Fold each of these.
Amino acid sequence: MKKISIIASMIAGAFIITLAPAKSQAQQGVTKLNIGYNVASPLGSFKDEVGKTSFRGWTASVLYGVTDKISVGLGTGYQDFYEKHPRSTYKLVEGGDVSAVVSNSIQVVPILATGQYNFIPNGVVQPYAGVGVGGNIVFYRQFLGEFSNSKTKFGFAVRPEAGVYIPFGKNSRTGITVNANYNYMPFDYNGVKQLSNWGGGVGVKFPIE
Amino acid sequence: MKNLFLTIGIAASSMLVLAGCTKDPLDQLNEEESRIYITNRDDSANFSSYTTFSVADSVAVISNGKLEKKSLTDVDKGFINAVKVQLQAKGYTMVSKDAKPDLGINISRIYNTYSGVVSYPDYWGGYYGVWDPFYWGYPGYGYGWGGYYGVYSIKEGALSIDALDLKNAEKDDKIKGIWNGLIRGSGIFNAGAADSQIKALFDQSAYFKRS
């Protein structure tokens, strides 16, 4: 599955770690991996398909510190949206009626060129803001009862994000992150016009070489 | 060293989380929710113009497009009785098949082991070989297809109910199907499930009534 291999290759990169003692928290020249759990809530017309908040998701990014404050790199993530609607009767396009329990199951995997700005690079708590722009892989399935119709589509995604990075200690280059994000995800299939959502989560951030 | 262990630990737990990260819709469905009920009608049929009906006294078992046998298990009886109850509730009068009923009802269990597909154009094409028009008193007649169509995948089997216009058969020179109910999904042939399933088909066919 595409999404597993993306994160696997990023985690594999994290296996090679510098063991040099950290002199300071300066982030210039350091590449860090940030991986975290993500909760997301559908917005706008997306709520007609799936109205329920998704507690099944994660985000990940690999960012290189260009300066102490600015880092750039690649971000990705995964979110599973699912809702089962109560039995209802619908008109079939070709004529006739169908009574069914409709289940919508949509997974999104954005792949984003990402930049972040860290406001207080040496602080105890380091607020940051960032944005990612790129593509979106959408796995779409709609079930009528146990019968499904599925489609994989590619779209566009923009993810602005804000949060805080809290290092574990004064000289540590590892810490936790807490963030909120908004995902702008246009879409067009089967009457679904967009998959935009907002949410946030908690993660860990640590250097990789 | 600590960093290395931290990284490996995070990586490993991440992989486990990723693997279990999608809700499988099929796991969230019970048998009743897995089923879908499809009804089709001939738009030109006038359902209030019929008075009497008769239901075929056994259920056809159609396997891979061919009649395998006529059957009357307890499950089959359950479906036949449920259809009788629904049509009487809709204002039609039940008569024996020799009393020239306006409507004839055929019930079939359909299984397709190799293609897993029911194609209604094929279904009606082969209908003559399954439901001999001689049964309804019209030997040598062909069947007319109600104008509806569809190709459906089935897994465990499907239940199909056809309402046939016998009243106008002589005038049209063929027996036309004017209504079809199709049930697809799991647990269709469980004893005791017949009443609610047949009721669902007729509930969504409000046009199908005597008056």
Amino acid sequence: MSLSENSEPKLYHYRDAINGFFEFPTSNARAILPRGLQPVEPHHGMSVLTVTAFEFHDSAVGAYREVALSIIVSPRIQHGDAMPRAAMFPFMVGTTTPESRRHGIEVWRLPHHPGDLEVTFQRREGQIDVTAAAGGAPILGLCITDGGDVAWETVEHRYQTFMRDDAGTYLSPLVMSGPFMEHEEERGQLTLHAHGFLNGIDPAEVTTIPFREQWMRDGVEFIHPLQTLAAFAGR
Amino acid sequence: MTVKTRLQQHLQGDPFDYDYSSFYYSSSDDAFTILEPYTEWYDQAQLRGYYLYGQPMSSRPMTRVELQEKLEQRRLNLLNLSSYNYLGLSYRPEIIEAAKKAVDRYGLGAAGSPVLSGTMDVHQDLERELAAFKGKPAALLFPTGYSTNVGLIQGLMRPGDLIVADQNSHASVVDGAILSKAEVRFFRHNLPEDLEKKLVGTPGRKKLVIVEGVYSMDGDVCRLPEIVEIAKKHEARIMIDEAHSTFIYGENGRGVAEAFGLEDQIDIHVGTLSKALGGQGGFVAGSTSLYKYLEGFARSRFFSCGLSPVVAAGVLEALRIASREPGLRGRLWANVSHIRRLLREEGIDVGESTSQVIPVMIRNDRRIFEIAHRLQRAGLYLQPIVYPAVAKHRSRFRISVSAAHTHDQLNEGVAILAHVLREEGIL
């Protein structure tokens, strides 16, 4: 599919979307990011790896589950544009169906793991546990908690996503809406296994406890068409 | 177009969906592109509670202060639980008199870098007496506490070296580390076992471990004995910033290192003159060779005008008072015990604090501004502390207890606090 065919915003309805923020070395982040994208540093020398998991129940490609690794980067601000809450560069995505994988590559130009993943969601009181594996080989385990007494609020958050493929670098605004909770109580957990899915990340260099945990339930992801960014092309 | 409409156009949401960190990083073709969305957010955030920051005070920072409220330009008389001034010295008559004499003698400023024409005899007197107070061979004076850490760390560490600092270190530590271009690792707050992890596999490297005596946002005390043991094991030098603990902790007020009996195990002692002494400036206490080296290489001092001799003279008098009146520390600690008991009786959450810095945990980044507004209208001056100064949803008020507070004032402060928190459903 060409970019011109990708002219309509796309809606993805999810039951759960969880996200953990983990510190890892900026030297590692810079090796992954295209030239021109700047990693956001919570501490000098440390960037932010986010591990995100979705359980979509309704989309143009049906129901599927998705796990993504991204780096938090500086948003691109232009006069008159809406201010995003944050920006990210997803550098590896895995899904559970061939249709969703093909859709993610062709429409959103996102780098995908070549085969289907096995992604499990286990919901317990106050937390959700996700595992991802490929052909039985474990990739990661992510636990996100609700932070105890942290309030859930219905929100509409605007983000920017940067993508890159062989043809160029792109930007897509996206909006996440639904009941939302985030906290920095450091109750969650990440386990990364040595696996090609990590795509350049050294598991030993990534913190195992998220400094921020986010959770959205029964919400909608609304992704705007891609914009080509000439300035960020190439490495 | 109204401010609100323009804000909604740019921000597309509630100003509390954003914070200072949202506007720090941005990429565009023009450095000024961020200014407009930031200004629009700032204007709206002011109306929603950020006006509480930086309201001009028109009195001395005593236990009661006159404040010009920014929101409605009202003049308020408030019970002050916000100012540092831990020993209540900034407005002592002897100190004001010393400053007045200094302005008559020296004029207003140092009129030069301390390495050129900006060192006066009062600066040297202050350095000598600071060194004697700390029991160290030398103390080097800096114009501010911030420039002390920045200049010290940048002056000592180099690319290829390793700095391992507590993750709750002050911004001046972080900025000094960035300027030094050394590798920086942060260990989890006050967790010696994580410090050890960060030091493993670093033999042969020049290393500096940085901690604080009392941490300014949580009011907790450094686990110094374990940290010293680990740093020594890994042959790292140790620096302690006692900004909030000098003149307060230890038998002689020399700080947390004295309280633990570890002064000789610490390589670099940092203190400020703006907290307990109520003045301005900072100092590094250590060996004479450290003094000489930093005098030459601490750029934040080398390239700044020297501390005003008026402030230096006032601080010198404050140092003498703090040294000869240990009862001030006794009064401070009696006040700390008193307010802690009151807070405990009211069931108010003070986190991990054991010091004169007492957080009142609210844990709600939105509501804290409304609560702060109500506290101010009820006569209490307390600052809301929110992300990114502290973690998200660990918002709190920070009580700074002073030796100058009376028990009646502390009773009044806690009564106002408890009343408002109860009405807000926090208690």
Amino acid sequence: MSLAVEIHHATKSYGERNVLDGIDLTVEQGSVTVILGPSGSGKSTLLRAINHLEKLDEGYVRVDGELIGVSVHGERFRELSERAILKQRARIGFVFQAFNLFPHLTILENVVEAPLSQGLPSSEAKARARTLLTRVGLADKEDAYPRQLSGGQQQRVAIARALALEPSVILFDEPTSALDPELVGEVLAVIRGLAGSGTTLIVVTHELGFAREVGDHLVFIDAGRIVEQGPPSELLDNPRHQRTRDFLSSVL
Amino acid sequence: MTNVLRRTRPLGGASSEPPRLPAEIDLAKLSERKVLPLRHPAQWVLTIVVLVLVVNFGQTLFTNSEWGWSKLGTWLFNPAILTGIRLTLLATVISAVVSFVAGILVALARLSRNPVLSTLSWLYVWVFRSLPLILVLIFLYNLGNLYPSIGIGIPFGPQFQVRTVSVLTDLTLGVVGLSLSEVAFSSEIVRAGLLAVDQGQHEAAKALGIPRRRQFTRIVLPQALRSIVPAYVNQIVGLLKGSSLLFYVSLLDLFGVVQSLGSTYPTDIIQLLVVASIWYLVFTSVISIIQFYVERYYARGAFRVLPPTPMQRVRRALGRSVAPFSPAAPASTTSLREDAR
């Protein structure tokens, strides 16, 4: 198995507070990694560092072997130009907690926007978008505007939008946290459908049931460090650390 | 009975008891009848007073011969007035376009991370927001005394120069003066609009790898325009009226023509002022109609269902008299689709 994502010594602080305190993590290609942790533990920051929405103070991230957001400059890393970073991001999908669909564009326009900006011909981008909308069960909504959809539908569009660039890795930042309980299932079902499709998924979530069922590898983070990691059965049923046990019992 | 219904003010918050209804009232029977709306007698009195005042004023329009309505028609399309209108409209339209584009650039400069650009932008807004428009105009008018020629070039190196008086002709002077002051305001309107766009939109655009220029033109600006348009149109109306100050630098705009005709025909001054008022009202009305549809365009997606246009309202009212129970929702959903195309 080859590595899709490699994070080494990821470190970041806001003033005195260490949000990420030297995290090392590797993610295998095509696998589903679930990141768990209390709020403020740094899990979202870690996820956002993978596509360089957050800059690291120290350490590096590699996706498919390529350094993200920086290049080697003599003895140090140097920040890449914004244009180069934007280009790299096209290969890394990101799904936000708050969906962040473009409210002034229709559903179809939302999904074709990124491919069009990469120079894909309109007809091709539309065909691809329609296939994806069918895949997330929203083929009949392409002319609607995001605010006319339910939260669950919006998040499914956001997933289709992230898929439209055919990324090798998709990052999910608490994709169901902003949803009403009865809408969580439809979004998780779509994510479950992506597992095993060859795309690497990294999911920050509080849904332990989902983590157990779909996750290949679970990572528990607290105070900017990885407390423990392993397959779901191990981490959820036989946690080795007290910190993990406390967290799991508070979530359940 | 009144004793029971009287509202008793509780002494303490805890001891308050809901007022009890007398037993003989049959609530079940009352509940079958329509609830009576609250009456507003004071509103009726006020309405009558206002109507009386309006009719009084309306009466003077016919009885006071000084209005001289018969002379109005001859002035309304007087050639001199029409040339004045031409200058007013040209100066307003060109300044409005220039200030909008320049306003975006100044706002972007202000928001940029480059400290030189952002400070310069701040200074510009500070200066031109502070100076009265008339002062700027008269300053420009006399610029030839300060700088007989103006030019651009490498500092202490070769220069490209022209005579000030030959550049600042009538219309140019008007447009430059109006725009200089207008940009200061429009840039602040644009900046407010840009800041109002949700941070998540910027992040989503970045995360999708959309190139920077496209992020601005396709994602951020269209959303900002939703709040920019109403404020900016207000600004354009101000500009239209502000163009009347051009008269003070000897330019004959609509107001200027009216003023000079007024001194030639002093007996017709009232009619001339009415003519100018009518024209300004017409222009502002046209601007308002355009504003309605532009705002509507940028509101797409902002509501689940867009409110109907006046035309749709009329059509629906007519349709309702034919089919009283036709639901309103499907019609407006269709209109939303139409707007999207």
Amino acid sequence: MINRLKHWIGAALAAPVIWLAMLANVPLKAWQKATGTGGMAVFFLAPNMAIFAVFVLVPFVINFFYSATSGSAFFLADRNFVGTEQYARLLDCGNYLDPSSCREDLFWKAVSNTGLFVVVQVTALIVVSMITALILNREIAGRSFWRAVFFFPVLLSPVVVGLIWRWILQRQGLLNFILYEMGLDTHDWLIESSSAFTAAVAVSIWAHMGFYTLILLAGLQAIPRDLYEAAEMDGTPPSRVFWRITLPLLMPNLLVVVILALIRAVQIFDEVYVLTGGGPGTSTLYITQYIYEVGFASLLRNPGLAAAASILMGAVLVVLTLVQLQIGRRNERKGARE
Amino acid sequence: MKKAGTILTALAASLMATSAMAGEVRVMWYSDGVEGEVIQDLLNRFMKDNPDIKVTLDNVAYKVIQEQLPIQLEAGQGPDIARVTNIKELAKHWLDIRPLVADAKYWDDNFGNTMDWMRPDGSNAITGFMTQLTLTGGFANKTLFEQAGVAMPGEKATWDDWVKASAEVMKSQKTAAAFAIDRTGHRISGPNISYGANYIGADGKPAPVDVGVKEFVTKLVNWTKDGLMLKETWVSAAGSTYRAAADDFINAQIPFYYSGSWQIANLSTKIGDGFDWVATGSPCGTAGCSGLKGGAALVAIKYTKNAADVAKVMDYLSREDVVKEFSERTLFLPAHNGVVAKGGMNWSTKDKTVGPALDAFVKASAQTLPGADALPAWKWATAYYGALVTRISQVMAGEMPLDDAWARIDQDIADKVAQAK
């Protein structure tokens, strides 16, 4: 009786799907007949490509046109065409290593800040994530709990992350309160350039390391145990095991982590914007905030200039992605040869 | 290409549409204090008398007014009415309700002296009215001064006098700093003008940074370097982001705070009987003791689909009795000539500090210099303020010397003027 009931419920639920499939069958057959098997790939990819076009390609093209215009008007038709003037303004520099010699000094300050941030943050993030993954891969008490603890900040909104740490680090924040209660000197963590930069790096690592740790942990768990057992039987020191077994076999995962972390670091904005507002001065002003400020927030708003800056930033991200693809392909070829 | 671009941008803009349909009026509103509740109450009464018009009050953060509304307006979108402070630069987006209001003469008579602040140069449009008149000025923590045994500087005291006295209080009471000024170019413009600054060139365009600006800004930077000005207020952000130091004054972290009359309700509500405070007017410079007039305006937006109803709402909110009640309940200085002339304001507060504070600002408003009075109706004021705050913050953070900052300020403003062509 129950089986028959299950059968009828299943049939009722499947009926609309079957009906739709039969309905789609006619045009699909005609399409396949006209275009061949390749045409079917186009058919199935079309919805995704349409979404990509509407939300990525079209805005990109509009942005590109914006970068060739000036003025504060919103509609392209109302804006003045200035060709490459915005790019020339951004690239007008006496010395590219000295932002103060550039016409758009804030842009170059943001570029230089972003470069430093990327180098320091990505290096530190990978080291910290690697150490955490190695520890969480061991048989420690409460391993699942610790994995959840390290992953938890990833679930938080960047604005929440920025606010939490601002409350901790501001002049009258939790950290200074604790230092004061312990009789130690307090410090203006977000007002001094060096400590604000350190805070921005540390907070972004805290917020994102869980994600990268998870990727590395997955890689560590995929390494065959017998390799470690053989090394142990040979009396290989742990450091040699790490450099000769763990690291080489973890390289594909590490590569993914490096590229994702690089791209994410170049795009850094939200949590640092909430934490420091780009200050003190412009010492934590990064390229995405520069684009946002110039395009939308500043009293000296210039959407054309912001669009040009975003195109240049996009070019950097394309280069990073191409490097990722190139290294990925080289590794695949190397793997195939071995 | 142009046509395709227009269609695409129009598509994007339509996604941001917020103006209301016929019979509905949307008001975008920000609050410094209790004015959101007061205006809602007043609008509820309007809707009771006009059941065919539904007025929706969208309470938003000031940042939305500053950053998102201009983008919506450039896209030909936005609410039907908005409360704004950047009233001159965006004037091309305001609706001329002169043909729609019940009595245009009433508007001219009662708001005529501030109408140029919110309409394009040379126009006689009625675009809205000031919900409040403001004046920049100082506040002193009387209790801290008394505890420190330091006499508060008198009426004609200079900036140097105030900073010196506040520094003594700071040392005695171990406050975070002697004083703070809000992080905005607007707030330091009164002091700049008190030191003889003139922003407006002979051709009406921005003049290069002059000795008046240089004198006060140099002092401000040095005070910051010496730990007397609360550094974090100015260096804790990049660009022209607004930062108020009101919370530091409310928490008794600074004995002297330079902001403006709109803070009175905020201070009264949050300080309560925590300590005694007084409004001091603007300290003097070499040219005078000027604050800067300004305020928030309620303007009709050109892109409304419901202009007739918008005019009805504006007519109601600009009524003498409504303006008077709004001002009394919000503790704002009214901009309505009739209300001001009749006087007899019955301020809605039990706080004995508020009345004298409002009186102090009314008194100080007679001391503003002509250079300051011209700024609210000057279309380049916002660009000037933006350049000042951006570059001075960099100097305070030790990123550039003052001499470079002057050149950068002039360049930033020139870029903005060129961009507008």
